[in-house]
Specification:
Layout lengths: L2 E5 L3 E2 L5 E8 L8 E6 L5 E7 L6 E3 L7 E6 L4 E6 L8 E7 L10 E5 L2
Length: about 120
């Protein structure tokens, strides 16, 4: 079955950087668009970014554009999210999702931005 395992979350100061990873198994990774979504405390699920099957097309929410970079390595079945210039409002549980923002997700990884 579909398995998505996120890692890389941490506590970081404002202005800092983190790289999230998502290891996929149980499906042919290269055949699906992939998404990063997040959920802040007390808020709904928010789309962050998505990437095409081959990695050549990416999209970003306005709130992260210019600071976050999504990428993928189809040979390693792994999705990434490089997050730079982190802000307190980026604090959330981050999930990778298969094929849509409401698709199967991993268990999530906590990112906390605080001084």
């Amino acid at each position: 079955q579909v398995q998505l395992v996120e890692s890389g979350g941490d506590l970081v100061q404002p202005g800092g950087s983190l790289r999230l990873s998502c290891e996929a198994s149980g499906f042919t990774f290269s055949r699906y668009r992939m998404y990063w979504v997040r959920q802040a405390p007390g808020k709904g699920l928010e789309w962050v970014s998505n990437i095409s099957r081959g990695g050549g097309s990416t999209n970003y929410a306005e709130s992260v554009k210019g600071r976050f970079t999504i990428s993928r390595d189809n040979a390693k079945n792994t999705l990434y999210l490089q997050m730079n210039s982190l802000k307190a409002e980026d604090t959330a549980v981050y999930y990778c999702a298969k094929d849509s923002m409401f698709g199967p997700r991993g268990q999530g990884n906590q990112v906390t931005v605080s001084s």
